[in-house]
TrEMBL record:
<feature type="signal peptide">
    <location>
        <begin position="1"/>
        <end position="29"/>
    </location>
</feature>
<protein>
    <submittedName>
        <fullName>Uncharacterized protein</fullName>
    </submittedName>
</protein>
<keyword id="KW-0732">Signal</keyword>
<feature type="compositionally biased region" description="Low complexity">
    <location>
        <begin position="178"/>
        <end position="189"/>
    </location>
</feature>
<feature type="region of interest" description="Disordered">
    <location>
        <begin position="234"/>
        <end position="255"/>
    </location>
</feature>
<feature type="region of interest" description="Disordered">
    <location>
        <begin position="144"/>
        <end position="204"/>
    </location>
</feature>
Length: 379
């Protein structure tokens, strides 16, 4: 299969915001003749590629899923990770996110400073197993970051063009090239990859009781009991996927900046909860505009929690947001990944304490992330 040629590019990104929207639309529902919903069903390749995005120290999503089918008989979705991060008033959210992404190994390929959007790449676009891409969109309260990976039936990925030096973009007055052209051949797929008509997987009928037992065990945790009710989602009529049990809310935590409030919320969770450990932390102590985040994990039953503190004055912003998730019983295809999450090393107490009393930025550990939806098998 030949790779699509890179189209001619504009000299500046005056249309990046529109193109980024087009990019997202193509990611959400790209259609190719012969790709029915069964063929689009996620397999082990999709899980492996998504997991690389979930555990990325910059992406560190609060919402996660795999590439797979969406509405329509041939629709595909490739967005697998997202987070909305609150940056404090006056913070240059786009500049900060791009800088942190580049530090984590990403390359910047397009930016529109006026619209507050950027397009970044991690890995080689020729190696679909190694590739993940991200968009950053500045919002009223910070930045929306989304990460995407190729679907297992994609045969190619659009050429992102040459990387840009962040110093030549917003603060340096440059704009860079536009994003890649997402024409009909951009995701030219090889329909011979995988079965074109796999058997539709189904959940076993006897997993519901086991899931309820798992949820009850986590809900009984003293820290989890302080959150809104954790319940088993209604399976509905969609027998090929399940929503993961989840809850969330806002924790009371005072402090002069996001880092201090995060450290307080983490300390409370570790002191109150049963068996929770910190696997990941990111903060900038002493910077009132900087957001902060951490992931907690308990191994049995496996559950994870993401704690996010927005940048800004503690009294104005208030508290720390928490999103907690666990897995329904019966996700046999994801057992290997679940084991990896359970085995993530815990951070040293000093790493977390540095968010409250340190003087240097902290990025430590690996995010503990579980998907919002799971499937009975991944082939």
């Amino acid at each position: 299969m030949t790779r699509p040629a890179r189209p001619a590019r504009p000299a500046r990104t005056t249309v990046l915001a529109l193109a980024a929207a087009t990019f997202a639309a193509h990611l959400s529902a790209c259609t190719v003749d012969g790709w029915g919903t069964p063929a689009a069903y996620p397999d082990a390749t999709d899980l492996r590629r998504a997991a690389a995005a979930w555990t990325d120290p910059w992406l560190a999503p609060t919402e996660a899923t795999t590439a797979g089918p969406t509405s329509g008989p041939d629709g595909l979705v490739r967005t697998v990770a997202s987070r909305t991060t609150g940056h404090g008033p006056g913070a240059e959210a786009l500049v900060v996110e791009v800088r942190e992404a580049v530090t984590a190994g990403w390359t910047l390929h397009a930016v529109d400073c006026a619209a507050g959007t950027a397009y970044l790449v991690h890995g080689d676009p020729e190696d679909l197993d190694d590739l993940r891409v991200a968009t950053v969109e500045v919002t009223g309260g910070g930045a929306l970051v989304t990460g995407s990976v190729p679907h297992h039936r994609d045969g190619s990925w659009p050429d992102p063009g040459p990387p840009l030096d962040p110093a030549d973009t917003c603060r340096g007055g440059g704009a860079g090239d536009g994003p890649p052209d997402l024409g009909g051949a951009a995701f030219d797929g090889d329909v011979a990859r995988g079965s074109a008509d796999p058997e539709q997987p189904r959940w076993d009928d006897d997993v519901a009781d086991a899931t309820r037992e798992r949820v009850a065990a986590v809900a009984a945790d003293p820290w989890v009991a302080t959150l809104p009710e954790l319940a088993v989602p209604d399976a509905g009529d969609d027998d090929w996927r399940r929503d993961a049990p989840a809850t969330g809310g806002r924790l009371d935590a005072a402090g002069p900046d996001g880092a201090a409030r995060l450290a307080k919320a983490v300390d409370d969770a570790l002191a109150t909860g049963d068996g929770w450990e910190v696997t990941y932390a990111r903060c900038v102590p002493g910077d009132p505009g900087a957001p902060a985040a951490a992931t907690l994990r308990r191994a049995e039953p496996l559950a994870v929690a993401t704690l996010s503190a927005a940048g800004g004055d503690g009294e104005a912003v208030g508290g720390v947001d928490v999103a907690l998730r666990l897995l329904p019983q019966g996700w046999e295809a994801g057992e290997g990944y679940a084991d990896d999450v359970a085995a993530l090393p815990a951070l040293a107490a000093a790493d977390v304490a540095a968010c409250a009393g340190g003087s240097s930025p902290v990025v430590a550990g690996t995010p503990a992330v579980l998907p919002v939806q799971v499937w009975p098998s991944l082939g």
